């Protein structure tokens, strides 16, 4: 799980081009969207592709993403339970 | 009808122009056929969260527009009109190649969104929270002149009082590679100062963003009055001279009144004769100016010409590096600009000192 | 200065017809042009539906009399066909008699060829002719050439899904200001893998027929189309004794300044655009007899636009409907397609049904017009809303 969380943080920073942010800046329970890290609906779409590509999880409704991408903790838990690769 | 003034300018080009202080006192000379811009520190102007999804073209456009606004002493404007030939072409390339390379799988939206031509104008509006009129013109080498024409109509009829206009284009690797293949870019590398004497086909490609605040009110910062702008989708080489004569006549200006002519020569032996029709004829005794050796050729390169002419009129200085001939004057009151690209999409613009 | 901006000719090619008459017949007969995609090979074939034009590129080239060495993109082909129809419809025999310009709109441009030959360009000389056809202005240059417009004001607007509405708006202003006597305005966009995949990444493509303003709407169907209108000044109308089809009375453009792609929840930009258009027309909301909504059937658009319509019209809401269920969303062409439909509505005193509607949206209680309706119409308002917060409204009227 810890490895997955680290991997998620690295991927999020890279995929979303968060230039000034390091892995250490993101705590496991930090809110990623809105006031937290400041991510928005386009970032959510980027993360949906990441779920598909890296973990074989397909979401069809972008609204599902909102709950899943609540924090690194929540994401890691969801991925662990649903991953197909 | 109200008059139209250029009240603020902002330029990001292959020269160090973003500072707005000096005027081409030190020229950067390149020895290549594709030249990049001198980047300002974009972080000084753009919040990192907003910047994370900004293509180079967006960054250049946003920063050049901020510089122009600051120069005009404004926080916001009534309208934003952007010109771009290709939009954020790197993202277009990124998205097309991703479609092909990944067989339409695992594509992400960011590059698609940025490939939309009006993404620069949209991001400037978003940043300024400007809910006014917002247009983007995408017509090759008159993309920028279209923005000037649109703004001029609105300002003359008092439909708006301040408008941000600009031209922006960025370079993309694939676009450059294929334009080399069809010889739009010179095959050989060339020292930019020797561009006009190159005697070969093609030109050097550049990129950049030049933005302006235009207004129907004159103020201390005013650079010039925009007297006229006309565009022509076609002109034969033999029609250029008469078109210019008619244009001047329509605006009640004689050739003797033109203190300098700013020409879009880009060193392409196949097309520079359009300019030669004017420089070796009607305007042979007029101070002739060129600039594409400084900024390179791109769809909105003529916006750099307007930046240059605005600077000349305000500072009354004409840097050595841009002189084609030596016919300097004490005073520069009226400047004519002519541009075309590969024989199409010609434009004539007339600026006057205030 | 010309007071009136008269529409004197129209041309159109879309998924529901190859000309104005065919489009009108489909509209009043409720005939949709939405199907599974056949002309572009895509892995999404099974999970999207589109509004595709039946003719192949070869057929279109033949129709235009082009030789095989031409480098027309499908966008240029469709645009040239629609624009030529418009000129013919207006009865223009010699386009050089008056100062005539062309304002076209496109978002795709020559992308259909670029995506087909992207890597081939680097090794195959035969396809390199399409390189110059990629940029958006190229299709416009070609249309101008087809119409015989030379030495004139010819430009292109690209503001995503509001592009053609903005081309019409700019054209109207050029006539009003006296800058031109006549201007051909409109837009053209072909289907491409680029847009299909682009909208797919935004997850706003429906896997079935699009259902504008329906509670359970699943997204849009992309379409391809081109439409052009001839606008003429009072001077030309009088001198040529033209039959005026309708007038452009009002226009407004505003930016939502909310988000890169999504519309604001309350439709600020759309509200401003409609208000401006009414102001230019010197109208009150009650002067509008029918609204042709943008209504793309995405969750976001229909809610935002519906709220904006309510903000502007309140309890004076006339019938409204979206025709996207017929044609799909034709992107940069949409504003011109729907301008043609608005003029046809005025000419025939007809309101088109909003097809595929089943369930009332829960956020508000306004319902689109569901059946074909005869009604005496004086003025129609048409909305076009796009990415980058771009919002436009046009008002068409029978009277000047």
Strand order of the largest sheet of chain C: 5-4-6-8-1-9-15-14-10-11
The major β-sheet of chain B equals: 10 strands, mixed
Output the radius of gyration of chain B.
Answer: 19 Å
CATH class of the largest domain in chain C: Alpha Beta
Rg over C-alpha atoms of chain C, rounded to the nearest angstrom: 20 Å
Strand content of chain C: 15-25%
The beta-strand count of chain B equals 10
What is CATH's topology name of the largest domain in chain B? Peroxisomal Thiolase, Chain A, domain 1
- Beta fraction of chain B: 15-25%
Number of helices of chain C: 12
Task: Determine the CATH superfamily of the largest domain in chain B.
Answer: Thiolase/Chalcone synthase
List the domain count of chain C as a whole number: 2
The residue ranges of chain B in which pLDDT falls below 50 over 5 or more consecutive positions are none
Largest interface: B-C, 68 and 66 residues
* Terminal-residue CA separation of chain C: 14 Å
**Structural class by sheet pairing and helices of chain C:** alpha/beta
- The name of the CATH architecture of the largest domain in chain C is 3-Layer(aba) Sandwich
Oligomer: heterotrimer
Helix content of chain B: 25-40%
CATH topology name of the largest domain in chain C, in short, is: Peroxisomal Thiolase, Chain A, domain 1
**Morphology of chain B:** globular
Keywords (chain B): Transferase
Domain Beta-ketoacyl synthase-like N-terminal (chain B): 46-218
Protein name (chain B): 3-oxoacyl-ACP synthase
GO molecular function, one term (chain B): 3-oxoacyl-[acyl-carrier-protein] synthase activity
Describe what you observe in this structure:
- The complex is a heterotrimer of chains A (85), B (354) and C (400).
- Chain A is mainly alpha-helical and 85 residues long.
- Chain A contains 4 helices and no strands.
- With 354 residues, chain B is an alpha/beta fold.
- Chain B folds into 2 domains: 5-215, Peroxisomal Thiolase, Chain A, domain 1; 227-352, Peroxisomal Thiolase, Chain A, domain 1 (3-Layer(aba) Sandwich).
- The longest helix of chain B is centred in the first third of the chain and has 17 residues, at 56-72.
- The model of chain B has no long low-confidence stretch (mean pLDDT 97).
- Chain C has 2 domains: 6-239, Peroxisomal Thiolase, Chain A, domain 1 (3-Layer(aba) Sandwich); 250-397, Peroxisomal Thiolase, Chain A, domain 1, CATH 3.40.47.10.
- In chain C, the strands form 3 sheets. A 10-stranded mixed sheet of chain C has the order 5-4-6-8-1-9-15-14-10-11, sandwiched between helices. In chain C, strands 2-3-7 form a 3-stranded mixed sheet. A two-stranded antiparallel sheet of chain C has the order 12-13.
- Chain C is globular, with a radius of gyration of 20 Å.
- The model of chain C has no long low-confidence stretch (mean pLDDT 97).
- At the B-C interface, helix 3, helix 4, helix 5, strand 3 and helix 6 of B face helix 4, helix 5, strand 5, helix 6 and helix 7 of C.
- Chain C: This is Beta-ACP synthase.
